[in-house]
Amino acid sequence: MLRWARDRAREAGLRSVSPGTGSALRLLAASVAAKAVAEIGTGTGVSGIHLLHGMRPDGVLTTVDPEPEHQQFARQAFRASGFASNRARFIPGRALDVLPRLADAGYDLVFCDGDRLEFLDYLAESLRLLRPGGLVVFEGVFANGRTVDSGPQPTEVLRLRELLRAVRESQELVPSLLPVGDGLLCAVKR
Ligand SMILES: C[S@@+](CC[C@H](N)C(=O)[O-])C[C@H]1O[C@@H](n2cnc3c(N)ncnc32)[C@H](O)[C@@H]1O
Fold it and tell me: Does the keyword Lipid biosynthesis apply (predicted)?
């Protein structure tokens, strides 16, 4: 089913998480015994399948994406992977419109894979959404090596550098940058 979801992502021109990143997401969800996970950027459901595998069997994945077609593929992929429909809550919309409606300290893990220009805003929202001991995770922070390239870079890369600095300097977070896929930035909320 992962292959099916990956194929749909490729057709739609979306980048789904790599197998290594997926395996790390499963581990991270299991490490916090996640009952409630928020995902920004459903895509066709590749990351969601990994997260659901790591979560508690009664855990619910809340996943946000402005593209209903992407979420429709993910819904099919979750079902075909054997997850009951009540394991996922699909919210259509842009993250910064939807996240303010989600409960304070109601989540064990927030996975950010939406618009990289908004990652700093996702960090602020995540700090509010996470319970103490919860994890925030950002996908793709290497930007194919451009984050550490000294040449001129687009705004997206400059924003990623700001994110890395903010997470490193935050007194509220214990961070680690995992070199899987295109860079997975993880941090535990104290
Ligand atoms: C890289 S893909 C996500 C891939 C997915 N996590 C996976 O591994 O299968 C990025 C997704 O973010 C969605 N997206 C773009 N802007 C967004 C926003 N402002 N809020 C939430 N999702 C957004 C896109 O529609 C797309 O489906």
Answer: no
Please name each of the domains of the chain with its CATH number: 2-189 (3.40.50.150)
State whether the beta carbon of 114 lies less than 6 angstroms from ligand 1.
yes
How do the pLDDT tens digits run along the chain, 190 residues long?
899 999 999 999 999 999 999 999 999 999 999 999 999 999 999 999 999 999 999 999 999 999 999 999 999 999 999 999 999 999 999 999 999 999 999 999 999 999 999 999 999 999 999 999 999 999 999 999 999 898 899 999 999 999 999 999 999 999 999 999 999 999 999 9
Token code pair at residue 3 = 């292959």
11 C-beta neighbours (distance < 10 Å), count: 10
63 lines ligand 1 (CB under 6 A): no
